[in-house]
Amino acid sequence: MQVKWLKLKNFRNYDECKLNFFEGMNLISGKNGQGKTNLVEAVMLCALSKSPRTSRDDDMKKENTSHFEVEICVQRNFGTLTIKCILDDLTKKKFYLNSNEVKKISDIFGNLVAVYFSPNDLKIVSEGPSERRDFMDTDISQLSSYYYNLTQRYNKVLEQRNKLLKMVHSRQLIEEQIDIWDEQLSTLAGYIVKTRKSFIKKLTVPASEIMRNITKDADDIKISYVGSKGETSAEIKNEILGALKYNLAKDMELGYTTIGPHRDDIKFELNGKDSKIFASQGQQRSIVLAIKLAELEVFKNELGESPVLVLDDVFSELDTARQKSLYKKLSGLQVLMTGTLFKFKPEEKYLSIMVNNGQVKTKLKEKL
Ligand SMILES: Nc1ncnc2c1ncn2[C@@H]1O[C@H](COP(=O)(O)OP(=O)(O)OP(=O)(O)O)[C@@H](O)[C@H]1O
Ligand SMILES: [Mg+2]
């Protein structure tokens, strides 16, 4: 699939902008603070229904304006579609798919599917489990709005169970009501964990291959899900239901639920060792790059067409040899890539997008 064009109105440092993308490589360059990341943020807003860099939608409104609009046109193998996002002072952000208002946010997922990689994603390896759960949940949701809805329902039931656990003075009430919440929570958890496990399993083989390829066989990675045991959703549900009962006294003491998918994690092993502790910064960067490129393959298999690859400020940190080999790997895909300095330009035709203070200029560069 590919993004055909993007229109912005009062978005970040843009007044108005219409940008036609190229079907292959798009190199978005310019000095610091000119609006390169803002452009890819707008693209990702249409893919994820939220910004990848802020949880406050108002941040995206141009300063001193009252509303923003982002519209994007996507070419899929079955036809074209448009996604529009509008935020004004009075309402929450609204989405339109082919000009029809979207009632449920989850209906946005799966229309524009993009793999996004920014320096912030290094957190997937270097920081705590919640970063890794977010990574899984965001990316699986792009493929399955059903999964997104499950996680929303799970969070609501979890909130109810935690509220009940906090009623320390009514032990009897807790004991009377907890079974209802445990049943619902473990059923939802069974589906969530099963989906996550199968996603992680699909990621492992391509991630390891890509890692060995990037590092010329010096490094290998293994990815595994750390959480409840079991293969089928029924097995996982039973395991979690048992654990909820077993941990009830502890949960009551703490006032929250200590087991379940909201506490699970992913383990990245680099050459057999935990990469959070043992991998160098450069190795951590290569691990995340390998995971994202593996995700491209998983998405492509699931969708029957390639997703769009969005690389924010990732390329400039690679040396010339790695930039060269990455360009080769990415041919045949649509790539939106930002950077201040591209030491090495693609050999194939590409679109150069120069960004200067919220203004863009494009130039199609032909093969040398
Ligand atoms: N809501 C907003 N209204 C107006 N300007 C904004 C808003 N949010 C951010 N900006 C401006 O946008 C610019 C930053 O844009 P962006 O993050 O896209 O830069 P960049 O080109 O990616 O730079 P770098 O190379 O440093 O990553 C800054 O000048 C910032 O002040
Ligand atoms: Mg930037």
Q: Could you explain the architecture of this structure?
A:
There is one protein chain. 42% of the residues lie in helices and 24% in strands. With 368 residues, the chain is an alpha/beta fold. The protein has two domains: 1-113 and 307-368, Rossmann fold (3-Layer(aba) Sandwich), CATH 3.40.50.300; 124-299, RecF/RecN/SMC, N-terminal domain (Glutathione S-transferase Yfyf (Class Pi), Chain A, domain 2), CATH 1.20.1050. The protein has a six-stranded antiparallel beta sheet with strand order 2-1-4-5-6-7, with helices on one face. A six-stranded mixed beta sheet has the order 8-12-13-3-14-15, with helices on both faces. A hairpin with a 2-residue loop joins strand 14 (350-356) and strand 15. The longest helix has 44 residues, at 171-214. The model has no long low-confidence stretch (mean pLDDT 93). Bound molecules: adenosine-5'-triphosphate and magnesium ion. Residues 36-37, 313, 338 line the site of magnesium ion.
